[in-house]
Task: inverse folding
């Protein structure tokens, strides 16, 4: 059914609003200082037990160690980093219900199974890269040369279409409609004639409109025959019809991508050279003597003074006592551990959901996306099970490379995770070949991960809504007697490495204030 211009503009405005910038504007997000801690006083050799050797746990131990605390980190895995994990040759994973998987990638190749991007405004993440000596490089998150691919029955369905073509056509048509509406005094914005003319001139520039305020294709959307020497002026295709774009699903809100508008995805973005888990590895070097690997926690008990942790390693069940505990375990994992927390905290642990998500890395013998299609970094977006294909932002012009063959979420990720490892790979190749027919000839090996089926993670990241932020989330912001909670799930920076760092600093500050001021010793939960 047709909609009015007012309804259209209202809907478009709503789709552009993201929670993150809104929270920034309201002052709900306070970035931690991008410099070394400046806390004073001594930890007096207090023993802090830290559960989990992910970014948050290791950062807490690193900062507490500077202040004189004695820390012990219990980690169930045989590696540090938690979800900050880059898959390289020899990496192994056994998901629930799946056989052991071993990565067969060539030496030097990798993909980030967990976090892959660092926003330029995540100053604390960049600070730790600098302090720990981890070199970074630009991550190309937005690439107009990548594709949209919509399976369906529309006129443009089942075709790979450059992002720049859709972006510029949609922008042109919408600005044309708005410019005409303003020119005909059909938008009741209370504009003066001079103001209206300024807006029209802006719309002409923004949408690439001609003098008559009509959208016509320009070189913004690329060429079908490139310009060059001599009489090669280049040839520009006609724009797609707006009705065809809509009918093909290319303007659906769950499909049309405006990543460059989203605060956390705006350029410039970065990644650690060699894989983002280089950040975790650098932290591990600082706290390696403190980590006990292969220690699966089974119980957390607050005592009248101090805390007791029960865990199991290869030698059997053991117990460890400390003055305080910092628990960084993902909440789906913590939900299966015995504890004597308050009812509010226990309820939060049991009911905060985590993202269902999965990725697959595909190694190819040739970087055909660069050689054949001039795609250097960026993301292709689909409406099928792949959801997204990520192109590497490193080793440009190299011989081989690894694509992230799919990165999916929610029901789609749940559906794909139910497949066998071989079926996942077959799906990634079949759907990917619809966009890149080179797959069949160039593919070598793959590796998949479903985070919600990965032991000691059981999900990608915490998910909140407005209600649970005010109830479940707040219940865990304060310590439960001697136990503090940290991790991305204890911030408004869910899914980002910055959440782990911000949370670690927040908890270290609280612990140190408690230890150095006896009036704060052992408050009630």
Result:
């Amino acid at each position: 059914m047709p909609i009015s211009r007012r309804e259209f503009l209202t809907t478009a405005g709503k789709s552009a609003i993201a929670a993150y910038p809104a929270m920034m504007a309201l002052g709900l997000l306070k970035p931690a200082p991008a410099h070394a801690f400046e806390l004073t006083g001594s930890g007096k050799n207090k023993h802090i037990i830290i559960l989990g050797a992910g970014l948050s746990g290791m950062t807490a131990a690193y900062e507490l160690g500077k202040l004189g605390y004695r820390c012990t980190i219990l980690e169930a895995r045989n590696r540090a980093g938690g979800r900050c994990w880059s898959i390289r040759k020899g990496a192994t994973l056994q998901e629930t219900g799946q056989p052991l998987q071993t990565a067969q990638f060539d030496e030097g190749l990798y993909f980030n199974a967990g976090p892959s991007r660092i926003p330029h405004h995540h100053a604390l993440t960049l600070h730790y890269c600098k302090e720990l000596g981890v070199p970074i490089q630009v991550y190309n998150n937005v690439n107009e040369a990548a594709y949209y691919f919509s399976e369906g029955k529309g006129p443009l369905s089942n075709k790979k279409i450059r992002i720049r073509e859709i972006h510029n056509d949609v922008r042109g048509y919408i600005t044309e409609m708005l410019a005409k509406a303003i020119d005909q005094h059909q938008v009741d914005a209370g504009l003066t004639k001079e103001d209206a003319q300024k807006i029209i001139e802006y719309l002409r520039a923004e949408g690439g409109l001609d003098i008559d305020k009509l959208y016509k294709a320009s070189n913004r959307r690329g060429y079908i025959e490139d310009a060059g020497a001599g009489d090669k002026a280049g040839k520009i295709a006609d724009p797609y019809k707006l009705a065809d774009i809509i009918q093909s699903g290319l303007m659906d809100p769950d499909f049309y991508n405006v990543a460059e508008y989203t605060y956390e995805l705006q350029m410039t973005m970065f990644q650690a050279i060699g894989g983002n888990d280089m950040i975790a590895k650098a932290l591990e070097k600082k706290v390696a003597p403190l980590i006990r690997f292969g220690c699966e926690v089974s119980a957390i008990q607050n005592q009248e003074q101090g805390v007791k942790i029960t865990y199991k390693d290869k030698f059997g069940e053991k117990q460890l006592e400390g003055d305080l505990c910092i628990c960084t375990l993902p909440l789906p994992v913590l939900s299966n551990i015995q504890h004597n927390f308050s009812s509010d905290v226990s309820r939060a642990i049991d009911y905060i959901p985590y993202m269902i998500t999965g990725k697959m890395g595909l190694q190819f013998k040739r970087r055909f996306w660069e050689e054949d299609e001039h795609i250097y970094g960026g993301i292709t977006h689909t409406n099928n099970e792949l959801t997204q294909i990520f192109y590497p932002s490193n080793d440009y012009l190299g011989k081989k490379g690894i694509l992230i063959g799919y990165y999916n979420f929610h029901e789609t990720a749940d559906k794909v995770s139910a497949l066998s490892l071989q079926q996942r790979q077959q799906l990634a190749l079949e759907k990917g070949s619809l966009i890149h027919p080179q797959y069949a000839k160039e593919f070598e090996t793959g590796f998949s991960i479903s985070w919600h089926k990965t032991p000691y993670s059981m999900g990608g990241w915490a998910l909140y809504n407005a209600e649970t932020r005010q109830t479940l989330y707040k219940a865990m912001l304060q310590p439960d007697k001697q136990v503090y909670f940290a991790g991305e799930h204890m911030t408004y920076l869910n899914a980002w490495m910055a959440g782990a760092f911000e949370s670690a600093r927040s908890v270290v500050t609280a612990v140190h204030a408690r230890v150095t001021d006896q009036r704060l010793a052992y408050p009630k939960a």
Notes: The first strand starts at residue 47 and ends at 51. The longest helix spans residues 163-183. Residues 203 and 401 are 41 Å apart (CA to CA). Residues 5-33, 518-525 have pLDDT under 50 and may be disordered.
